[in-house]
């Protein structure tokens, strides 16, 4: 039996700044466009939705942005998060590779999402806002924002994709425990929701629809702003604390990753762990291979187009250049609800195009299989989303074994799976299928992408 090795950073070594990869890009991001005029939008266009501090972070070219003291104080409750050397997993695989993982499941909500929820709640509260509206798929983001809202005295309303609302009553209960309110989407509370229900009263909902509802509430209420849990530059900025801590922890371990892996829904936990390492390489330092892993049933980077698209189904958002399956694409149901989004973060998409990130798609059965191997070796049950990263880490470790190489692999364990045990039951009972996406529906959705000159 190999010993557990845990790298704990002392609190005073917690990063004082977030890292903004925009400062190190060899080619800048494409502008965000107004869908009506096709012209780049300015900070004022986003002011109805976000506080100015977050808008300025969205477009900032500064490499380091200070983490405000009240945010650091909340982070201290669970940060720095531990980095583990997965010695028992290495032994189980009989691989010469070294496998490390950063455990983001130790946060109060059980995932990496509070890293940005707390920051967003802070900046909104500071600008005098009293209410936030948002959407959630599987419920991870809704519960993270409800937690952050409780700390900064904000009323949080969450539009939750209806199928998940019905399937995951405990996530809803968690949001309500933190004082948030949770509405199944599509709902009758917004024009966007009413339009969907008029044509499809039994609509199961989607993340794209729920975003339309949450954005509409913020756009039509002066006291309410909108909060997004992934995709946007400021979200990836806040998540950079994961990779920055990992860099210090690798110094403690006297090691450095050859490969950095994260699962990718909107791209925030992947960007969070990988960008500090990619940035090091962009500045002329050590290069890593970074792998972003998406579900084969929602293959945004590996099967989508790199094009301007809306962030929501109701087309209320500006246009962003990103990998997309089209804003009307409905991925088949699978258990990693946090990975069922049609688009990818513009920053991740841009770095894929620049050849700095390798995208990869994996199915849910091999992912759950990897989740079980990991749980039986390391004791932690990964969230269904995180099992995609575990699968890829194991695959790379097995490749190392075949090639007789002792590479160093780092992956992000984005969350624990304690609210997803019914998915594990389905896997253990042999009830999970590896559905392919509907090729015709994807072709149709891609043919409907907005035309940008
Ligand atoms: C939401 C979520 C994801 C996917 O979102 P990203 O923005 O791509 O990180 C992954 N893992 C967990 C545990 C999540 O809750």
Structure description:
- This protein is of the alpha/beta class and about 450 residues long.
- It has a domain at about 5-15 and about 70-110 and about 240-445: 3-Layer(aba) Sandwich (Rossmann fold).
- Helix content is about 40%, strand content about 15%.
- The chain is built from 18 helices and 15 strands.
- It has helices at about 45, 50-60, 70-75, 85-95, 115-125, 140-150, 160-165, 170-175, 190-200, 205-220, 235-255, 270-280, 300-305, 345-355, 365-380, 385-405, 420-430, 440-445; strands spanning about 5, 15-20, 65, 85, 100-105, 130-135, 155-160, 180-185, 225, 260-265, 290-295, 305-310, 320-325, 360, 410-415.
- Helix 6 links the parallel strand 6 and strand 7 (about 155-160).
- Helix 4 (about 85-95) packs across helix 15 and helix 15 (about 365-380) packs across helix 16 (about 385-405).
- The chain starts with a strand and ends in a 6-residue tail after the last helix.
- The chain binds pyridoxal-5'-phosphate.
């Amino acid at each position: 039996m190999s010993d557990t090795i845990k790298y704990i950073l002392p609190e005073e070594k917690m990063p004082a700044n977030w890292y903004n990869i925009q400062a190190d890009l060899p080619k800048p991001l494409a502008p965000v466009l107004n869908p009506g005029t096709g012209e780049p939008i300015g900070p004022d266009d986003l002011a109805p939705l976000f506080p100015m501090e977050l808008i300025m972070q969205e477009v900032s070219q500064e490499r380091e942005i200070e983490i405000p003291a009240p945010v650091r104080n909340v982070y201290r409750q669970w940060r720095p998060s531990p980095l583990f050397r997965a010695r028992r997993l290495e032994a189980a695989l009989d691989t010469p590779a070294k496998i490390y993982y950063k455990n983001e499941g130790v946060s109060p909500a059980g995932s990496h999402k509070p890293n940005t929820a707390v920051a967003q709640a802070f900046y909104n509260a500071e600008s005098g806002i009293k209410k936030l509206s948002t959407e959630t798929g599987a419920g991870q983001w809704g519960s993270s924002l409800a937690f952050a809202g409780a700390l900064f005295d904000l009323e949080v309303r969450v539009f939750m994709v209806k199928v998940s609302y019905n399937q995951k009553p405990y996530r809803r209960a968690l949001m309500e425990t933190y004082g948030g309110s949770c509405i199944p989407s599509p709902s009758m509370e917004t024009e966007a929701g009413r339009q969907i229900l008029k044509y499809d009263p039994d609509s199961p909902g989607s993340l794209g629809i729920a975003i339309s509802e949450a954005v509409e509430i913020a756009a039509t209420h002066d006291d309410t702003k909108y909060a997004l849990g992934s995709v946007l530059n400021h979200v990836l900025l806040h998540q950079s604390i994961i990779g920055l801590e990992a860099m210090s922890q690798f110094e403690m371990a006297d090691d450095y990753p050859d490969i950095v892996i994260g699962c990718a829904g909107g791209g925030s936990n992947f960007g969070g762990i990988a960008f500090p390492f990619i940035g090091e390489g962009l500045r002329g330092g050590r290069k890593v291979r970074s792998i972003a892993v998406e579900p084969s049933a929602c293959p945004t980077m590996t099967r989508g187009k790199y094009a301007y698209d809306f962030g929501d189904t109701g087309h209320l958002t500006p246009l962003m250049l990103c990998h997309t399956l089209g804003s009307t694409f409905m991925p088949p149901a699978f258990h990693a609800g946090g990975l069922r989004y049609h688009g990818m973060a513009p920053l991740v998409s841009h770095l894929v195009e620049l050849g700095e990130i390798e995208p990869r798609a994996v199915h849910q059965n091999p992912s759950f299989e990897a989740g079980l191997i990991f749980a039986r070796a390391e004791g932690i049950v990964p969230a269904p989303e995180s099992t995609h990263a575990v699968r890829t880490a194991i695959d790379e470790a097995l490749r190392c074994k075949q090639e007789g190489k002792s590479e160093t692999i780092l992956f992000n364990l984005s969350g624990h799976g304690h609210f997803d045990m019914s998915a594990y039951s389905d896997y253990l009972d042999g009830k999970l299928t590896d559905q392919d996406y509907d090729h015709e529906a994807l072709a149709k959705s891609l043919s409907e992408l907005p035309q940008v000159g």
